Amino acid sequence: VYRYHSEESIALRGYVVREEQVVDCTETLIELTHAEGTRVGLGDTVATVYRSAEALQATQELETLRAQKEQLEYARSASSDAETALRLDTDIRDQIVAVRAAFASGSYSALDSLADELKTTVLRREYAYNGSEDLTARLDELNAQISALSGAASGGTTRITAPVSGTYSAVADGYESVLTPESLNTMTPSQLSSVTPQSVSTTVGKLIRGSTWYFAASVSASDAEGLKVGSRLTLRMASGVDFDLPVTLSRVSGEENGKCLIVVQSNRYLSYMTLLREQNAELILNEYDGLRVPKNALRVDENGVSGVYCLVGRVAYFKPVRIVYQGSDYCL
After folding, report:
1. 83: left (phi > 0), else alpha (psi -120 to 50), else beta?
2. Which residues contact 244 (CB under 8 A, 6 or more apart)?
3. Could you report the per-residue pLDDT of 47-83, keeping only the tens digit for each?
4. What is the rounded distance in angstroms from the CA atom of residue 146 to the CA atom of residue 66?
5. What is the b/e burial string over 217-252, where b = at least 16 CB atoms within 10 angstroms of the residue's CB?
6. What percent of the chain has pLDDT above 70?
7. What pLDDT digit, counting tens, does each position of 222-238 carry?
8. Rounded CA gap, 311 and 44, in Å?
9. How far apart are CA 198 and CA 179, in angstroms?
10. Mean pLDDT (whole number) for 314-325
């Protein structure tokens, strides 16, 4: 006898659907402004277009100089503060752990910003320990270089702005206009199986409106019989998301050649879903926890009460049980 967790589930292969708007761009020298899954407001800069390689180089140099200026200003204010230097040691250890965790989990979009943050903290620590001598002169020199580069960098760039507000994704896969929330209202299993992406021109990504995402898949008619629209279920992705997703069943289509199309939706964790499209998944209908015992250990007494016999010393005691789930050869 031991504690056990059991689930009733349906294996699925389907598509993640969102309300998406692609941001077109035909330029080649582009720098994206936002990380994957971040919120973008109407009119915010989505990407910066550089008119020449020289403008790109000037902008990169300008960003490096501004980062150095920030580090020097911090060092000048903290160079005489031993407590600040020690706190930076702790920050460096925490950031190293965060970088390693992002790498291990495959969160490469976050890895870039985490690595930059770590580098900045390391430089701040170095300045804080070495003191503030000659920092003022170095800051004056940096300010002069920043002023000289600002004109060249700003004159050679243009901005691409967000046409709508939404969650940003850098990847457009051609399904944006084919799989829409509206199309799911009338889609059949055969239409879902035959869906193909459209060709995608050069883009700087897309914006996902709202906070709701959908998952559509075909299931057998027998599996669909026990499903009820409005039920709260759990969706477990095979890849891309390493935790269970709470969803609501929003549609069960009519039967077509022994198949039905089901649609579940959720308004949580959209930032984790921006890169997912065709996915293997598991729809968990029910979950059960209890004490697992073999079916052949169950007995029914003269009063119709189900139970098991437990041996305590040399005496067998009848223990009533409540059956919460029956598997192939066991009960909970």
Report:
1. alpha
2. 234, 235, 236, 284
3. 888 776 777 777 777 777 777 777 777 666 655 555 6
4. 7
5. bbbeeebbeebeeeeebbbbbeeebeeebebebbbb
6. 90
7. 999 989 999 999 999 99
8. 71
9. 11
10. 94
